[in-house]
Specification:
CATH class of chain B: Mainly Beta
Strand content of chain B: 25-35%
Strand order of the largest sheet of chain A: 1-7-6-5-4-2-3
Order of helices and strands of chain B: EEEHEEEEEHHEH
Strand content of chain A: 5-15%
Structural class of chain B: alpha+beta
CATH superfamily of chain B: RNA polymerase II/Efflux pump adaptor protein, barrel-sandwich hybrid domain
Number of helices of chain B: 4
Structural class of chain A: alpha/beta
Largest sheet of chain A: 7 strands, mixed
Largest sheet of chain B: 6 strands, antiparallel
CATH topology of chain B: OB fold (Dihydrolipoamide Acetyltransferase, E2P)
CATH architecture of the largest domain in chain A: 3-Layer(aba) Sandwich
Oligomer: heterodimer
CATH topology of the largest domain in chain A: Aspartate Aminotransferase, domain 2
Number of domains of chain B: 1
Shape of chain A: globular
């Protein structure tokens, strides 16, 4: 990888520019801009030639690690490969050049696409209606919880202010609940990694609005008690929210509505393969059962226009290009890949929950973490060393149930050869931990940025450049 | 092994309490700071804020994760350890001398629900 560490401002030379317009043939026109809003000095933009700009950004992009350059087993993120056909269809000028304020009669094709995508999502989840407005998973959670709250309010049941969230949940669950004005009550997991029914039952009273669940959960385990949980929560008058972050494991095989969930979101950018990471863009459509469908408009607008339309288009192309037969193979292949990696490394890495996993699983660090001399081989060391082997690191230190969590999600799009290469790298790292610990402690060695001091990086931010 | 100090009371969420009359000094245990790793930010309540037993009163953020702080007692905050604002890593250096807040307790009997050093040692052993 070419090491490139220049800032565009460092390339700047006084008077240099990429494009010049003929002098004298233009006059200044500031229109109706009031005097007090006009600049008195020129903006401090870098002065660079066109090749400087192009090379700068191409060199920077070459330092990016992406799912297009290599294996990206980031747990809970479903970094599957994004098929090119989706990009091609989404960039069709008839869609790509639409303006959201165009008259309705000129965007009928786009609206039809939204409707057909909704119908597909209903078929895949068993829900009766979807809103495509939410722009990401957490946005979907908030929207879904607002619908849940509206359900209770519409029945005059105003005392339901608490929401139950498992201790293994994604951090966005309690955060979304707090933004929605609900009080979060945590329910414990059993040593087997599933919701503890004995802890859940006494929590269910008439102040509980509902429960948020991810199934399979963040340990990659299917909540086998789901029928019992649904029965108990419904009997207590609450609703069940399904966090679709891990839907990839079940796609085309199991439907959240059939399990008994009332409200859910899907992460289109994860499960339906549109490019994501680094902050977006995403799409988090929210689906509800028939009895709640009328409540969707009651909560008001949650985003402008129809959400992230580009993401919706790619998801629609993904669903149609796979078709009903093939989409049912996504989940099983993702589960097979995860179990293959899990079983291949369990002699070298600690596997706290050894049962069959779904699309992802969690190791709790190396089987032998004590490196002698009071030194410990940590998950951070392993993750940093993986970068030297050319792989993106898995998710680390999540879920919080273990001290050295390494969460691996291979997805269905990786070949056996890629999985074997990853397994081989992980075995070598386990060997190095015993033979040459220094290599791990000082890793990565081959990346443009070596190992930063994370404490310093978090406490002393340098966010601006000064010459 | 984590260091555990005699004479303090401990909660299951790994806060410690030192009682002096009706004033409770609250911090986090050595086990808590070790589990979290390098601490980079401490979110504390203001003086005169009311806090309730078993409810969140702040948060500690490390390079690994952010964890809520739960109050072992109910009462009114009388002091916050301002040194932690500039140097949150003090909690890693010595979590027992570097307390987080002091609280005037409503009901000092609430302390009885907490663990003593021996019980907390056993509790932590189950988690290590």
């Amino acid at each position: 990888m070419k090491n490139y560490d220049r800032l565009i401002f460092e390339l700047s030379r006084e008077g240099r520019c990429g494009y010049s317009l003929p002098e004298g043939s233009w006059e200044e026109n500031t229109g109706c801009l009031p005097q007090n809003l006009r600049r008195e000095t020129r903006p401090a933009l870098p002065q660079v030639s066109e090749p400087d700009v192009v090379r700068h950004y191409v060199n920077l992009s070459g330092m990016n690690y992406s799912v297009d350059t290599g294996f990206y087993p980031l747990g809970s993120c479903t970094m599957k490969y994004n098929p090119r056909i989706d990009e091609e269809l989404a960039s069709h000028p008839g869609f790509a050049h639409l303006h959201p304020l165009q008259p309705e009669e000129t965007v009928q094709g786009a609206l039809q696409l939204c409707r057909e995508l909704s119908d597909c999502l209903c078929k895949l989840t068993g829900m009766a209606a979807f809103t495509l407005n939410p722009c990401a998973g957490a946005h979907g959670e908030l929207t879904g919880l607002m619908i849940m709250r509206q359900y209770h309010i519409s029945r005059g049941d105003l005392k339901r202010t608490r929401i139950i969230v498992p201790d293994s949940a994604h951090g966005t669950n309690p955060a979304s609940a707090a933004v929605c004005g609900l009080e979060v009550v945590q329910v414990r997991s059993t040593p087997e990694g599933l919701i503890d029914m004995d802890h859940l039952r006494p929590l269910l009273d008439d102040t509980v609005a509902g429960i948020m669940m991810t199934n399979p959960n963040t340990l990659g385990l299917f909540e086998t008690g789901i029928r019992e949980i649904v029965k108990c929560v419904h009997e207590a008058g609450g609703l069940l929210y399904y966090d679709g972050a891990n839907m990839n494991a079940l796609l085309g095989k199991v439907r959240p509505a059939d399990m008994g969930f009332d409200i859910m979101h899907l992460n289109l950018h994860k499960t339906f393969s549109t490019p994501h990471g680094g902050g977006g863009p995403g799409a988090g459509p929210v689906g509800v059962t028939a009895s709640l469908a009328g409540l969707i408009p009651e909560i008001g607008r949650v985003s402008a226009f129809h959400g992230n339309f580009g993401v919706l288009m790619k998801a629609y192309a993904y669903i149609l290009s796979l078709g009903r037969q093939n989409i049912g193979r996504v989940g099983p292949l993702a589960v097979l890949a995860a179990n293959y990696v899990k079983e291949s490394l369990k002699d070298r890495y600690r596997l706290p929950v050894p049962s069959l996993c779904k699309h992802e699983f969690v190791y709790d660090g190396l089987a032998r973490q004590d490196a002698g001399d009071g030194q410990q081989v940590t998950t951070l060391d392993i993750a940093k060393r993986l970068l030297d082997y050319g792989f993106h690191a898995p998710t680390i230190y999540f879920p919080l149930l273990f001290h050295q969590s390494i969460m691996i999600e291979p997805t269905e799009t990786e070949s056996l050869e890629t999985l074997d290469a990853f397994i081989d790298a992980m075995r070598r790292i386990a060997d190095e931990a015993e033979s040459s610990l220094g290599l791990l402690k000082s890793a990565p060695h081959t990346t443009p940025v070596r190992r930063p001091d994370e404490t310093l990086a978090a406490t002393h931010l340098k966010l601006t450049w000064k010459s | 092994m984590s260091r555990i100090i005699e004479g303090l009371s401990y909660s299951e969420s790994h806060e410690w309490v030192k009682v002096d009359g009706d004033i409770a000094t609250i911090g986090i245990s050595d086990f808590a700071q070790k589990s979290m790793g390098s601490i980079v930010y401490v979110d504390m309540p203001e003086e005169d804020d009311r806090i309730e037993q078993n409810e969140e009163f702040g948060a500690v953020e490390s390079v690994k994760a952010a964890s809520d702080l739960y109050s072992p007692v109910s009462g009114v905050v009388t002091e916050r350890n301002a040194a932690l604002e500039d140097e949150p890593g003090l909690l890693n250096k010595d979590p027992y001398t570097n307390w987080i807040i002091r609280v005037r307790m409503d009901n000092p009997a609430e302390i009885e629900a907490l663990m003593d050093a021996a019980a907390y040692s056993e509790f932590v052993a189950g988690q290590e």
